[in-house]
Amino acid sequence: MINYIPRRFTVVRDKSLCVNCGLCVNQCANDCHYYSSDDKKTLLDLKNALTNYKALHNLIRLFGYDDLYIHFDVDKAIQMLNEVNNRISIINLKEKD
After folding, report:
1. CA-CA distance, 36 to 87, in Å (whole number)?
2. End-to-end CA distance of the chain
3. Residue 10 vs residue 88, higher pLDDT
4. How far is Cα 92 from Cα 97, in angstroms, rounded to an integer?
5. How many Cβ atoms are within 10 Å of 84's Cβ, its own excluded?
6. For residue 39, what are the contacts with CB-CB under 8 A and spacing of at least 6?
7. pTM as predicted
8. What is the dihedral of CA 55, 46, 80, 89, to 10 degrees?
9. How far apart (Å, rounded) are the C-alpha atoms in residues 56 and 58?
10. What is the pLDDT of residues 9-41, one digit of tens each?
């Protein structure tokens, strides 16, 4: 026989205050919080960061900062940006249905 102990507390998370840092997921011992990689806001923020990375790379190349230029891997950023765009497209298709 399974004994059911009623919960004394309810976890309420205000999504408007969430910044998707994932800290609540790492610290919660009761699995009340979760992180979804399909979260559109997170993907849009990542897309913006990758676009800024590419722009910064172009500025560094334009102004001739060769010592910084060698630290940028734009090919990986482009691959990641394509994957993020694909996932955003999938989410948009799911929202239409």
Report:
1. 12
2. 43
3. 88
4. 9
5. 20
6. 20
7. 0.58
8. -110
9. 5
10. 666 777 777 766 666 666 666 666 655 655 788
Residues in contact with 65: Cβ distance below 8 Å, sequence separation at least 6, in sequence order: none
Contact 84, 46 (CB under 8 A): yes
Give pLDDT tens digits for 43-56. 888 899 999 999 99
Residue whose C-alpha is closest to residue 59's, from 51, 49, 50, 69: 69
Would the CA dihedral through 75, 81, 79, 23 be positive or negative?
positive
Buried b (16+ CB within 10 A) or exposed e, 39-62: eeebbeebbeebeebeeebeebee
